[in-house]
Amino acid sequence: MPGDAQVGKSMLEVIDELGVYPAEAFDFVRQGLIYTVNRIHGESTDPNANRHVSGPDLCLGLREYSFLQWGLLAGMVLRRWNIISTLDFGRIVFAMVDNGFMQRTDDDCLEDFRNVYEFRSAFESGYKIESRT
Question: I need a surface site. Which of 58, 61, 69, 89 has the fewest CB within 10 A?
Fold first, then answer.
C-alpha cells in the first residue's frame, strides 16, 4: 500500500499517536497548505492540475499564513503548540501523509523541512513598533 498508511485511522488517533502537537497545530498546517497552494498556483477548478508545493515553499507559506492569522503573536502561538522549527511543520505534514490525510511526491521527504529558516528570527526580528512622537 502506498505510504503504508493504516486504513481507517482518524485524525485524532494520528495526533494522539504522535503525541507532540495539539489538534489545532494540525488544522493550522492543513489550512496553511491550502493558503500556500492558492498563493503559489492560484485558485483552480481543474481537479487534474498539479498543485504541489515543496517543503520549503510550505514553510514559507505557513510563516506568512501565521502572521495573517495572529500578527506579531504568531511565534508565541506556534511555540504554545510545540512548533519551534520548520522541521516541526514537516513532522506534522508527514504524520498526515503517512496516514492518508495528505499526499506527497516521490521526491518529497522530511528533510525538505529542516532549517528552512531560523524560527526565532523569522517570527521575532525585523518588527518594530513605531511611536508617534
Answer: 69
CA pair distance 120, 23, nearest whole angstrom: 23
Distance CA 10, CA 25 (A): 16
pLDDT digits (tens, 9 = 90+) for 25-60: 999 999 999 999 999 888 777 677 778 899 999 999
Cell of 49: 492540475
Phi then psi dihedrals of residue 132, to 5 deg:
-100, 100
* Domain ranges, ordered by start, for the chain: 14-118
pLDDT score, position 9 = 87
Contact 86, 59 (CB under 8 A): yes
| Pairs from 26-29 (Cβ < 8 Å, separation ≥ 24) | 26/92, 26/95, 26/96, 28/62, 28/65, 28/66, 28/69, 28/81, 29/62, 29/89, 29/92, 29/93, 29/96
Instruction: Name the grid cell of 119.
Output: 524560527
